[in-house]
Design goal:
The protein is α+β, with helices and mostly antiparallel strands. The protein has three helices and 14 strands. A hairpin with a 3-residue loop joins β3 and β4.
């Protein structure tokens, strides 16, 4: 941009000299020279102003308390009456702390780092949540289509209790890990298509049934399960769904994905070896996430801006496993993180 300055100045001077040579009156020459000088000064000032206002980096930082609830339900348990295990994971309505840093480079690349922490409950030594995510957004991928990638790693722990209607009770603590990779192509119409690779480790109630009596549990127990899933997603994201003349902007984002989930566990290996046949196949799995929010501008001046956001987010997933051959190991489940939050944003 600075290379335009001598070119503009030279063009203006040449124009002034040419006019001066074609006009003899001295007063006309002086007037044209003064006009040329003013044009040069104005061009230089305009160029310098654009250069000073041009920002190669935009940094945004935010802090957000989130009143989060985790609900994990066994959809398989509802089939087995007195043989079902009533599982309570005991992470309910707890305040988590969220921090985010976002760096925008040349309005082309955006990098963001997010951290969610739920400190361990000192009174019960349970209920801890930690999640770290990193994202990249390339806005000029193909025309007005952007390419988004996100890596998320999360772990949480708490107390778990399994109750049988027959009076048997099992209690203990658990630790759970989740890992995901997301790739999304987002269009200018705020709609995107994507893929998610997901792995999940979870203590889970399981039931062994026979094909001719699928609602009768031959065996039931509580074991560690590992799940690996692939989802194909539809994403919608609009930060300015409604604004109007008020300093309030309403936005929404949601994604829906369907795919398959592969289970693995020591109990699966043991049962299959004992029966000599496959007892569980991949699951039909789905996920649904949404975030509804409203932004209110607190301060906006020059390159500094501050706003506060109030919203509600929910992330849910469920899986229904296909049966085996003569015998099946049933471990269907659904899980959900949800709760309201408030965010204070600052960008410069």
């Amino acid at each position: 941009m600075f290379k335009l300055i001598p070119f503009v100045a030279l063009s203006s001077v040449l124009s002034v000299n040419a006019l001066a040579q074609t006009s003899d009156p001295k007063n006309d020459n002086e007037g044209l020279l003064e006009t040329g000088k003013k044009l040069i000064v104005e061009k230089v000032e305009d160029t310098l102003t654009v250069t000073e206002d041009e920002s190669y980096f935009t940094i945004r930082a935010s802090y957000s308390p989130w009143l989060v609830t985790w609900e994990q339900n066994s959809t398989a348990a509802s089939r087995f009456g007195s043989d079902a295990i009533n599982v309570n994971y005991q992470i309910d309505s707890t305040l988590a702390h969220m921090g985010r840093v976002e760096i925008d480079i040349l309005d082309t690349f955006t990098f963001d780092f997010n951290l969610v922490e739920l400190p361990e409950d000192s009174s019960t030594e349970s209920n801890a949540l930690s999640a770290l995510s990193f994202g990249i957004n390339y806005t000029d991928f193909i025309g007005e289509t952007s390419l988004q990638y996100r890596y998320t790693q999360a772990s949480f722990e708490g107390q778990i209790r399994g109750d049988l209607n027959k009076g048997k009770v099992s209690t203990g603590s658990f630790e759970t890990d989740a890992l995901s990779h997301d790739i999304v192509l987002m269009t200018k119409w705020h709609i995107g298509l994507g893929y998610r690779s997901f792995s999940y480790e979870l203590p889970q109630d399981v039931y062994l049934v026979k094909k001719d009596s699928p609602n009768t549990a031959l065996l039931s127990g509580f074991v560690d399960m590992d799940y690996d899933a692939d989802f194909y997603q539809v994403v919608y994201q609009h930060d300015d769904l409604f604004s109007g003349n008020l300093p309030i902007t309403v936005g929404v984002s949601f994604r829906y994905g369907i795919g398959s989930m592969t289970p693995s566990s020591e109990i699966i290996t043991q049962v299959e070896q004992s029966l000599g046949q496959k007892v569980i196949n991949d699951a039909d799995a789905s996920l649904f996430e949404f975030n509804l929010y409203a932004d209110y501008v607190l301060y906006k001046q020059d390159s500094l801006e501050s706003n506060i956001r109030f919203g509600y987010r929910s992330e849910s997933m469920e899986a229904e496993f296909d049966a085996g051959s003569e015998y099946s190991l049933v471990t269907d489940f659904e899980t959900n993180f949800s709760g309201p939050y408030a965010t204070l944003n600052l960008s410069w």
